[in-house]
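Honest question from a wet-lab person: if I give you the sequences of every part of a complex, can you actually get the arrangement of the whole thing, not just the pieces? Trying it with mine:
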Amino acid sequence: MINKIVRDMAAAMEGVRDGSTVLIGGFGAAGQPDDLIDGLIEQGATDLTVVANNAGSGRTGLARLMELGRVRKIICSFPRSAGSVVFEELYKAGKLELEIVPQGTLAERMRAAGAGVPAFFTPTAAGTKLAQGKEVREFNGRPHVMELSLPGDVALVEAWEADRWGNLTYRRSGRNFNPVMAMAAKLTIVQAQNIVELGEIEGERVVTPGIFVNRVVNVRRGAPWA
Amino acid sequence: MQPWSRTQMAGRVAVDIPEGWYVNLGIGIPTMVADHVPPEREVVLHSENGILGMGPAPGKGQEDAWLINAGKQPVTLHPGGSYFHHADSFAMIRGGHIDLCVLGAFEVASNGDIANWATSENDSAPAVGGAMDLAAGAKRVWVMMEHITKDGRPKLVEACSYPLTAMRAVVRVYTNLAVLDVTEAGFAVRDLAPGVTMEHLRGVTAAPLADARETVA
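Yes, you can. This is the full assembly:
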């Protein structure tokens, strides 16, 4: 019997290695797998490359992981925001590498990784400094920038419902980066608000099919800002 | 001279959006446009974090932490609205399915170049977000901004001095002083705020201006 539901956080995080590339879902607080990030802090892996839309906020979650010196590099679209104090400190001190990627390119690079496409050409960023050093080709009379796929060793995903096969649904705009990250990583770990019986998520309603999911841990936590 | 207020600018943009368009409103002043679309006109708002048919802010106590806009403020969903993941959301943008994107900007050049994400070449950690995807991908990009900076420098220029967001992207600019089209020949003035003259506008614009206003009898 397939059962991807693990008993606790330690089991969910087992085997995450130093030096891993970790894809972390969420856009702001919505869809951000806060409990899995805490689990990763507890688990101890270090020298990580983190891929996330934002570079953490306040001093908890991703910001805490960074403050503990466990993140070598962050790849994101929007590093600097109102609460990104830890990022600013570390970046200014030269203790954190940064790669800025346009948001849609970031999503597509992970989708491509999950889909087995090693690189693609996009009009986004053509003629800007984010295209510097990248191959540019003209298609339909417009310059396009070559972008490489962005695979992860681990993805941390927040879902609303999950079954034991790892089929997932998401709540409202909490979906955001989670499905493409689930596709793009070798080890996809999910925190799910609700664990449901197999078949309860009808086939039409499945957003991320279980093939993209390795482990699910049940976290009933209420709203992320509660 | 009576420059348009931000509310009036938002209203000015909103009347020009036809029914049926799919529209992405950038963070900041462009967000205000949503409040000025006539209620009987169906315009579908897109938010790059995966929402089509985005509605206004919920009432107090009705907020849902999983339903936020690109500015991370709580919003609602209209009947007929939908949710999708980030790659699909940017496929809508990059794939040319979004009819209009309204953005703020630091500078717009007379060839349509836009600079709106980094304030200097030396800023090593600017936040680009979805600005480059939107500017390069939407069917048309309108910019909504003040005509000059706080310290009085023109924001409409011959060539952008700030790092570019996208090349030749902008087709129309709404400022507090005027509405201008970006044409093959450069900026063409379509409308002026009350009491603003072409002479005054030329004095606060660092690029040539054509007068393309419809002559009023």
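Two things worth pointing out. The interface with chain A takes residues 47-51, 64-68, 72, 77, 83-87, 89-90, 93-94, 118, 121, 124-133, 136-137, 163-167 of chain B (CB under 8 Å). The longest strand of chain B covers residues 76-83.
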